[in-house]
Prior knowledge:
Blueprint: H1 2-18, E1 21-22, E2 28-29, H2 39-65, H3 67-80, E3 92-98, E4 103-109, E5 121-128, E6 142-146, E7 153-155, E8 160-166, E9 173-182, E10 185-186, E11 193-196, E12 207-210, E13 220-225, E14 229-235, E15 245-250, E16 253-258, E17 267-272, E18 277-289, E19 293-302, E20 329-330, H4 332-335, E21 343-344
Antiparallel strand pairs: 1-2, 3-4, 4-8, 5-6, 5-9, 7-8, 9-10, 9-11, 12-13, 13-14, 14-19, 15-16, 16-17, 18-19, 20-21
Amino acid sequence: MAQKLTATRTAVFDRYLRQPLHDNGGVVHSPPAPAPVNSEQGENHTQVTGQILKFFKRAVVLSKEGPFYRLFVYCGRRCACGRLSSQCRPPTTLRVRATGCTELSVTWSPRMPLNPFHEESYVIAWRLGGPEGQGDDATGWKQLSLHSRDDCEEVDNKTKLRIFHDGVPELSPVTFRIRAKNAWGYSDWSEEAQGKTLARPSEDGGFTGPLGPANDGHEVYTWTQTNSEVGLKVPIGAGRRSKDIKFKVTPSRIEIRLVVPEGQSDELLVGPFPKRIKTDETNWQIEETEEDGRHIALQMQKAEKMEKWPSFIDGDQHPRIDTRLVRFYANQMNMGGMGGVDIFE
């Protein structure tokens, strides 16, 4: 019964809304039409609001760069001896990147409060090795105190700090962590980050790398480079023939597979190149020498001459070399018109 009364009231109310409106003179008036929305006015209002906010943000930035503000902050910090600082928080986005055979760059983002009198320095810790054995109880950690202004470099529009850590053994993994400190104590340690120093290139501008499971008992391949070519030597078993090798190369990837018993991996060397090559000028053959034994010899043309390859395969398991130590030599015959000058890069 209640549902029936509700339906009846709704129908009567809808019929009432559809009836025209009358005034005392009997003139029919239609309901007023809604005002049209002006899209240009809305866009102008948004633009004006954005400009006002931009103005205030810029005013805040300029006020912090002004001499009076700097003098005020300087006096507060010197007089309070750091006691006006806030509690430190652990830095974030710790990143480690190899920059040389014995050098790594370490970058992090400080978590600075709004307190203009806040000051903090840092303690960085490192140890040789990968992520295994993480935690405060792990042994082998070495520490170094860093002053934020004297020892650190501001990067990324002054949002991050960076240092260069030298004296690390060649081709060694290193684990880093960092924490902040000031007059109120230390923050917690940041998350750990790993990096690995570069390898020193061979006299031929290359290095070595690991082979896949189908390696016939051999562990590494050897690669070299010139200003225009990349060479590769992959050792194989004494009984291997060309029919046992599946070779595929594209401008950005190589696949060398061997015929193996069913159920075993056939990968000998598979992965992407760090640079591009010319596939129509790629040649390979099986050779056997007293020095290298039986191996696959491969010659490829670089897509861009004078490019320095950091590795043969672009991957974490394949060592990268310090390309700053690679020197290309060119004589007057392949450089043309340079007389008797020897050119290095």
